[in-house]
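thought: user wants a sequence for this fold. calling inverse folding tool.
action: design(structure=
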């Protein structure tokens, strides 16, 4: 609810739902997630209307991908990885269908997506290299 309230003033909502946010190696927190045409908002599910806990502006998102289930600590649930220059965020989703919907929404917003089919891998690598050179 808090993420939705914060996102309402910042662009059209593309997709929303609950995710488990990877705060550390063994700690995942249930959060509300809202992707708008401008940003990804995450807020703790039990927070009232205090606003989003984390806001990732769309231009900061370098790429998104689904973790290979054989490498995931949760092989029965898809793990979505969203990368910025400074950090990689892990979102544990409820099903493969939900993961596909999030990846499609990110791709529609022109965030490079690697969903295992090799589609945007070259574009993602080029974007990461360009940003890395600008930062250095």
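)
observation: tool returned 136 residues.
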């Amino acid at each position: 609810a808090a993420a939705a309230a914060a996102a309402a003033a910042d662009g059209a909502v593309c997709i929303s739902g609950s995710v488990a946010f990877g705060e550390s190696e063994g700690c995942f927190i249930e959060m509300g997630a809202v992707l708008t045409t401008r940003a990804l908002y995450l807020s703790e599910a039990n927070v009232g209307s205090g606003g989003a806990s984390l806001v990732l502006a769309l231009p900061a998102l370098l790429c998104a991908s689904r973790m290979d289930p054989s490498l995931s600590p949760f092989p029965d649930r898809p793990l979505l990885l969203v990368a910025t220059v400074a950090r990689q965020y892990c979102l544990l989703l409820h099903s493969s269908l939900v993961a596909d919907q999030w990846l499609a929404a990110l791709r529609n917003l022109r965030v490079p997506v690697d969903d295992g089919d090799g589609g945007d891998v070259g574009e993602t690598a080029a974007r990461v290299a360009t940003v890395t050179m600008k930062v250095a």
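thought: summarizing for user.
answer: Here is the designed sequence. Residues 118-136 have pLDDT under 50 and may be disordered.
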